[in-house]
C-alpha cells in the first residue's frame, strides 16, 4: 500500500501537507485551517481499515480529504469504498478538488453536512475514522458503536493532544463492555475501539 502510492495521490498528499503546515502558522483562523492528521497516522488508519471485517467504511471530518487519501489506499487494497462526511462547504470544495486531482472518485463518496443527521441511515459499519470537532465525539461515539459489526473498528483522533476535552468520551469508551479499546501513542493519539 505504502511503497507504490500512485503519483497523483502522492502529489496531492504533498500539496496538502505543505498547505497544512503553512496554515498552522500564518494566522489562518482555527476553523478554516485544514487540521490534518500527520502521515504516520494516515498509515496507521489505512492499515486498520485494510484489516477491517466486511462492512461499510466511514470517515467523520473530511476537511481537504488528506486522511481520506490514506483511506483510499486501503480501499484500493481491499476493493472497497468509503463515505466521508464534512459539515463546512468551504472544506468540501477543497475535498472535491483533492478527490479529482488524486483520481480516487471511484472509491470515495463525499457527503456535505452534519454527520449526526446521517448516522440513522447507516448500518453494518466495519470501519469509522472520527476526526471532527471534539465537542461532538461522544455523540458520534454513541451513535456509531451500535452500528458497528462484530470486529468493526472505530478510531478517534486527538486522544492524547486533546485528552482533557475528550475525557468524557474516553471514560465511556475505555470502560465500555461493548468494545475493547485502547489509546495508541501515534501522531496526536488514536483511540482504537473494536466491537466485541
Ligand atoms: C480535524 S479536521 C479533519 C481533518 C481530516 N480528517 C484530515 O486529517 O485530513 C475536522 C473536520 O471536521 C469537520 N466537522 C466538524 N463537525 C462535523 C460534523 N458534525 N459533521 C461532519 N464534519 C464535521 C470540520 O468542518 C473539519 O473540517
Task: Describe the strand arrangement of the main beta sheet, using strand numbers.
Answer: 3-2-1-4-5-7-6
CATH class: Alpha Beta
Query: Looking at CATH, which topology would you report?
Result: Rossmann fold
Bound compounds, please?
Answer: S-adenosylmethionine
Give the helix tally.
7
CATH homolog superfamily: Vaccinia Virus protein VP39
Q: Let me know the average pLDDT.
A: 97
The helicity comes to 40-55%
Order of SSEs, N→C? Answer: HHEHEHEHEHEHEE
User: How much is the radius of gyration in Å?
Assistant: 16 Å
Strand content: 15-25%
Structural class: alpha/beta
How many angstroms does the end-to-end distance come to?
Answer: 28 Å
Task: Please give the number of β-strands.
Answer: 7
What can be said about the biggest beta sheet? 7 strands, mixed
Amino acid at each position: 500500500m505504502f511503497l507504490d502510492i500512485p503519483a497523483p495521490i502522492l502529489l496531492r498528499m504533498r500539496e496538502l501537507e505543505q498547505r497544512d503546515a503553512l496554515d498552522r502558522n500564518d494566522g489562518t483562523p482555527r476553523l478554516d485551517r485544514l487540521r490534518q492528521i500527520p502521515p504516520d497516522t494516515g498509515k496507521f488508519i489505512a492499515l486498520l481499515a485494510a484489516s477491517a471485517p466486511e462492512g461499510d467504511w466511514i470517515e467523520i471530518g473530511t476537511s481537504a480529504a488528506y486522511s481520506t487519501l490514506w483511506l483510499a489506499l486501503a480501499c484500493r487494497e481491499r476493493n472497497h469504498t468509503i463515505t466521508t462526511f464534512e459539515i463546512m462547504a468551504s472544506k468540501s470544495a477543497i475535498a472535491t478538488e483533492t478527490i479529482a486531482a488524486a483520481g480516487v472518485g471511484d472509491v470515495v463518496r463525499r457527503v456535505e453536512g452534519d454527520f449526526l443527521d446521517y448516522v440513522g441511515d447507516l448500518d453494518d459499519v466495519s470501519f469509522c475514522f472520527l476526526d471532527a470537532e471534539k465537542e461532538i465525539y461522544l455523540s458520534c461515539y454513541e451513535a456509531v458503536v451500535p452500528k458497528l459489526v462484530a470486529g468493526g473498528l472505530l478510531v478517534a483522533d486527538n486522544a492524547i493532544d486533546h485528552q482533557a476535552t475528550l475525557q468524557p468520551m474516553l471514560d465511556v469508551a475505555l470502560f465500555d463492555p461493548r468494545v475493547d479499546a485502547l489509546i495508541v501513542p501515534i501522531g496526536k493519539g488514536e483511540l482504537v475501539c473494536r466491537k466485541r
